[in-house]
Amino acid sequence: MTFDDALARARALDDGDALAGLRGRFVLPEDLVYLDGNSLGVVADGVRDAVVAAVEDEWGTGLIRSWNDAGWITLSARCGDAVAQLVGAPPGSITVGDSTSIHLFNLMVAGLRLLPDRSVLVTDRANFPTDLYLAQSVARLCDVELVLLDPGDADALSAACDDRLALVSLSHVDYRTGVLHDMTGVTEQVHDAGGVMLWDLAHSAGVVPVDLLGCDVDLAVGCTYKYLNGGPGAPAYGFVHPRWQDQLDTPLTGWLGHASPFALDGVYRPAEGVGRLRIGSPPIVSMSALHAALQVYAEVDVAMVRAKSLSLTDLFIALVEEHLAGTGVEVVAPREHTRRGSQVCLRLAEAYGFVQALIARGVIGDFREPDLARFGFAPLYVRHVDVVAAVAAMAEVLAQGEHVLPRHRQRAAVT
Amino acid sequence: MTFDDALARARALDDGDALAGLRGRFVLPEDLVYLDGNSLGVVADGVRDAVVAAVEDEWGTGLIRSWNDAGWITLSARCGDAVAQLVGAPPGSITVGDSTSIHLFNLMVAGLRLLPDRSVLVTDRANFPTDLYLAQSVARLCDVELVLLDPGDADALSAACDDRLALVSLSHVDYRTGVLHDMTGVTEQVHDAGGVMLWDLAHSAGVVPVDLLGCDVDLAVGCTYKYLNGGPGAPAYGFVHPRWQDQLDTPLTGWLGHASPFALDGVYRPAEGVGRLRIGSPPIVSMSALHAALQVYAEVDVAMVRAKSLSLTDLFIALVEEHLAGTGVEVVAPREHTRRGSQVCLRLAEAYGFVQALIARGVIGDFREPDLARFGFAPLYVRHVDVVAAVAAMAEVLAQGEHVLPRHRQRAAVT
Q: Which ranges in A239-373 belong to alpha helices (H)?
């Protein structure tokens, strides 16, 4: 299939795309193919105005009164409920605030405390660094053994599933390989061993149907600045299954998680339910951006997003395999739909230069050490024609040798 | 002195105020006397434009590239350096991000780890709740004894200063009584006992001269949404004395605190210096507001701010004592300048109704359980004439009985 034929096919797919109208709800720089929404989503309409209103009206005029009058005090819960409907969680089971790292720490410690007679914390050696680093820290603080699974070893989790197992912490989608883990099966396996399961939804929420309640997940965390378009460093979220909410014993006992913050008691008494995941005052201006961005998702069926995501990644993989054949570029992503997230990596020795050359051509992906060029497909605003344009640019970059660059520039990408 | 005479005197003081011009740098609602800058500061000029630029240009157009191109990646350090010059800290000793609660947790655990052979954590029973709650949590996690000082007992700290003492965590200014602690003397006393000292600067930074290096302080935290005008829930900061920076062993090992975040190593290796206080991605839009707000302070001498603060609180106390005499209202604030922060509380049984009635009259303070009406004086924008107007309103409220209200409305104030 020539690029011209591919473009015609892509146009037909875009014409039939029921989500196509959503692209107009986002601010997108012209002439840019943005395949990095898995790192930082784009600005949704309404976000700018929400942020201006938060600064000018709520903060500027309302001042301290806005904690009640503008609803700042409930913003963590309201954003939490908006996220909840995207991940199969009931209202009142998610709190937004702080970073994914903080939620991970808080929920890993609290998860271990649910099973004080058990002594093993399990994660995946390929998990995102912050998940790994915090697992190391938590294991040390709580004096439990940390077991690191080898992602290539399908039996590794089974081996860890014994009566010492307390908590398993995994990412739903691997940030490098794009592998989508089997949330149902893994959670069931951990529960069969009597353990508690924590999922990091950073790379799945909003693009992969997630059913936390249906999968009986105990704890989950996620970030909102990727597919949820919350903005750079937007506050993250923590989920607690209703069965654990009122016994969850968190270590980050900030005053806003108290049952009665304004009583200013001397002794911590946790708020009912997931309100105890609040810690200090959340960054309201950033959270106002997130709240506005989440309105787009209020009208979206994630199943349709998923279908488009698979259509986009199928097309990308097919075009790469045809047009980059013989260049040494390897596709890193599962071919089976059931195991694929919403991203595809390409492996090549000159991945860093490759990404830089593509950026110069207006195609934005990111580089992941040591040899991966990563491309994310955010179906709310990425079109099939963008996929064709991206692969055409890749073929040009490789043909012209633009990817062979001096490696002196600072590396810019953020997951 | 009649209110008319007081007003004339206040006008004279304002005319001679070298900081008077700064008031024009802030957005202040008309006809409002805002004495709650110790809870939430006001919008500085430049803040709105900075936030719009962060959303429209940096995020909207720059997208992921802005981590480098717009300097997002260094924003925590740049805001940290701006705060550092207000609190006598050297450049590179403060990191901004997360909340005060998170910095407290991180630095209390790390502080205890500096002296692993010691086993006592000390704080003040009257400390702000989040400081207390996190001290309780840290003592439990680290298996050390928590000693709560009685603020009325001048010898309590001496009694705790033995060879078991590891860490003392205190607030520089008490959030209720406005008492300014003796940073030099207390830090020296703790050091003499071989302990580590952590100060919470939430209610002093920006209005009281703080000399962290001169006082040889080990660790400090503070919030930026009070006198520093960073905005609701703006990110907080952590300070580490240079002597500890490269051995500080923090529990919140987020990926951005890694020596080489983008290497995506599997094992945590802390960044040099205070960079290890970074955890997850910070909320850039909120931090952009803070960065702009801190520009006002770049031109300000905190000693002048302090002089004006004392002039404002002196006037307030004098007018309250004269005009509210016989109403049962008691001034809660040290009379000695050396022991007074930048706030004054009034104690009365109907404090909640008193604050509500004042708000209805356009004078904003806040209520603190159980019987305190709290008024903060932010000298960058509060004038002496505002003090007169506030006390005149108080006299009216009490004379009219407006403070005797049904106590059914939700309590709104946030420290």
A: 242-245, 284-297, 302-323, 351-360
Closest in B48, B253, B283 to A286, CB measured:
B283
- Based on the fold, state whether residues A333 and A216 are members of the same structural domain: no
Q: Does a structural domain hold residue A79?
A: yes
Q: What percent of chain B has pLDDT over 70?
A: 98
Task: Determine contact, residues B279/B257, Cβ cutoff 8 Å.
Answer: yes
Task: Check residue A250 and report its DSSP letter.
Answer: -
Whether B193 and B327 share a structural domain: no
For residue A97, the model assigns a pLDDT of: 98
Judge whether B226 counts as a catalytic residue: yes
Cβ-contact A191, A216 below 8 angstroms: yes
CATH code for the domain in which residue B384 is found: 3.90.1150.10
Confidence class for position B14, pLDDT limits 50, 70, 90: very high
Q: Which residue has the tokens 């078991």?
A: B164
Count CA atoms closer than 13 A to B3's CA, side-chain side.
Answer: 15
Does residue A268 have an active-site annotation? no
Q: Tell me whether residue A412 is in a domain.
A: no
Total structural domains within chain B: 2
Work out the average pLDDT over A380-395. Answer: 98
Section A89-99 average pLDDT:
98
**pLDDT tens digits, one per residue of B271-308:** 999 999 999 999 999 999 999 999 999 989 999 999 99
- Which residue is catalytic, options A34, A105, A128, A377? A128
> What is the pairing mode between strands B94-96 and A196-200?
unpaired
Active-site hit among A225, A239, A316, A377:
A225
Question: If you average pLDDT over residues B341-351, what whole number do you get?
Answer: 97
Q: Tell whether A140 and A158 lie within a shared domain.
A: yes
CATH number at B191 reads: 3.40.640.10
- Residues B69-73: contacts with CB within 8 Å, 24+ apart? B69/A412, B72/A232, B72/A233, B72/B284, B73/A414
Q: What is the mean pLDDT of residues A135-147?
A: 98
Domain that holds residue B325: 3-31+301-400
Strand ranges in B28-119 using DSSP code E only, listed in sequence order: 33-34, 43-44, 94-96
Shortest Cα distance from A2 to chain B (angstroms)? 31
